[in-house]
Design goal:
The chain is built from 6 helices and 8 strands. Helix 1 links the parallel strand 1 and strand 2. The protein is about 30% helix and about 20% strand. The longest helix has 11 residues. The termini are far apart. The strands form 2 sheets. It has a 5-stranded mixed sheet, sandwiched between helices. The protein is globular. It is of the alpha/beta class. Helix 2 runs antiparallel to helix 4.
Length: about 190
């Protein structure tokens, strides 16, 4: 199976106060470089970075796609990548989730199959910004963006309902990997 990886890096980062993708980690890499490296180490065939119009160019070895609808959130990036990708499946990860491991990415990919992705859950909560979505969802994603129906959780739930994605309950020991960084305090808490 050909897998495309997508790093969602088009947000305004208002709560963080600076572009999250440019935050430098203790190992000297930016958050964006870390996520691109993660996807490559997990064995994806190509990596795409989703950006909004007007963002500065990226300094990582990955294709950049500009979101199909400005200021329409992560679903616009997902819709753009689903329409442009060469792979059968799209592994999506938000740039601000630096705790996700290569093992988790590989496990989720191993659960997917052609035409059927994987949506992580924590009980009733959908963790949709780390997920696997099949290319067959491209039209539905584009239609939802065009209609202003931008909640990725709703998109993921519909994908599950139509059999295009399976529910994966995150094991309790892996829950910390799904934390994201929204504010400077989130970064400091890792310390």
């Amino acid at each position: 199976m050909h897998i495309t990886g997508l790093v969602l890096a088009g947000g305004h980062s208002r709560r963080m106060g600076t572009d999250k993708s440019a935050l430098v980690l203790s190992d000297g890499r930016t958050l964006l470089a870390r996520q691109v490296d993660l996807l490559r180490q997990a064995g994806v065939d190509e990596v795409i970075v989703s950006r909004r119009p007007g963002q500065p160019p990226i300094a990582v070895p990955a294709q950049t796609l500009i979101d199909c609808a400005p200021d329409s959130g992560p679903l616009a990036g997902i819709a753009t990548a689903l329409a442009a990708m060469r792979g059968e499946l799209l592994f999506v990860i938000a740039v601000d989730m630096p705790h996700v491991s290569t093992a988790v990415v590989r496990q989720m990919i191993s659960l997917a199959s052609p035409g059927r992705g994987v949506v992580p859950h924590r009980g009733d909560s959908i963790e949709c910004l780390v997920g696997v979505y099949p290319r067959e969802l491209a039209a539905m994603a584009a239609e939802r963006v065009a209609a202003g129906q931008l909640r990725v959780r709703d998109f993921a739930a519909i994908a599950e309902g139509m059999g295009a994605a399976m529910r994966w309950e995150i094991p309790e020991r892996l829950v910390p990997e799904f934390r994201n960084w929204n504010t400077p305090e989130d970064v400091k808490a890792v310390g």
